[in-house]
Amino acid sequence: MIVHDDPSLDAELELLRAAPAPRAQLRRDLLAAVAREPRRLSMPQALAALWRELGGLRLAAPAFAMALAVGVGLSWLADDGAPAGGDESGDDLVALAQFDDAYEGLEP
Amino acid sequence: MTSAPAAVPADPDAALLAQAATGDEAAFARLVDRHLSRLHALAWRALGSVAEAEEVAQDTLLRAWRQLPSWQVGKALFSTWLHRVALNLVNDRLRARREQVPIEDAELVSEAAGPDRTASEAQRAQRVRQALQTLPERQRDAILLCHFEGMGNIEAAAALEVSVEALESLVSRARRALRQSLSDTRTDES
Fold first, then answer.
1. How many CB atoms lie within 10 A of CB B43?
2. Residue A62 burial by CB count (10 A; 0-12/13-18/19+): exposed, middle or buried?
3. How far is CA B57 from CA A85, B38, B85, B104, B163, in A?
4. Are the C-beta atoms of B158 and B4 separated by less than 8 Å?
5. Does B108 have pLDDT greater than 80?
6. DSSP alpha helices (H): ranges in A37-101?
7. What is the ipTM of this complex?
8. What is the pLDDT of residues A10-32, one digit of tens each?
9. Does pLDDT of A77 surpass 90?
């Protein structure tokens, strides 16, 4: 703390010490202006806000879990029904191209 | 002249800032309750006008609200940042006034007197304010923060973005200039 030994100057400065209190209306006006302001959120805050809007853990999490389970289940069923070695024809074509220099099927 | 960044102490507003940054208006209202009076008083002391002090306080806190989403915890105390913004707004207004009308020619305004003042006290207070307004900006800022806001040297230096030594020099020069200016006024009047 800076110490200055000048009581008369301090006494004069003290004349400005007692300031008027802000009006209650100022607080109300300020908070009303804040409520009117469009919010600018950072990406994590925007994602958090979206998560809350979607219902958070109570609503969104079960819905996402259900969607994930359905997706995995359908993909498992689709794999189960598909013919084994579905891309073997592609291997055949590569083998054929390597075997036969004159084959033009894979050229761009 | 800037100092090496000093370690910023824990911000007593940190929890409310985190809540307000997510758009929580109730948390921001509590921050307003904590800081509005001080910002208003700071601006009133420098400007001498209640209306302008209200505008400065409101503008400062609105800027804070807009800034909150990108607020970096630990970089500065919220109160320090608010004071810096308020002082800049005050200085802008004083500069604009000076271009319009010399401070010495400005008429005494009754609202500049402050609460419960006699006429003679009000006049003396106005003389002090005029002396304050004629100081160079940095010196005035230093006096406002150190004398009236009761800030410690480290916090005031952080608010003005100068070293503690530079702050001490600003305060000393400001007090010397004020003493001179006020004694000149007294001589003129006698």
1. 29
2. exposed
3. 73, 9, 10, 25, 26
4. no
5. no
6. 43-53, 56-81, 88-99
7. 0.78
8. 888 988 888 889 999 999 999 99
9. no
Q: Name which of B69, B111, B147 is nearest A45 (Cβ-Cβ).
A: B69
Q: What are phi and psi of B133, to 5 degrees?
A: -70, -25
**Chain-wide mean pLDDT for chain B?**
86
Which tokens in the block code for residue B96? Answer: 């604009």
* A34 chain-B contacts, CB cut-off 8 A: 25, 28, 62, 65
Of chain A, the percentage scoring pLDDT greater than 70 comes to 67
Both structure tokens of A99: 């075997």
CB-nearest to A41 from B41, B61, B69 is: B69
Query: Which of B22, B44, B69 comes nearest A19 by C-beta?
Result: B44
- Residues constituting chain B: 190
* Helix B25-47 and helix B119-133, axial crossing angle in degrees, nearest 10: 100
Alpha carbon of A47: minimum distance to chain B alpha carbons (Å): 11
CA A35 to centroid of chain Cα atoms: 23
If phi over 0 gives left and psi between -120 and 50 gives alpha, with beta otherwise, what is residue B114? left
In degrees to the nearest 10, what's the CA dihedral of A21, A22, A23, A27?
-140
Q: Which of B26, B28, B7 is nearest to B71 (CA)?
A: B28
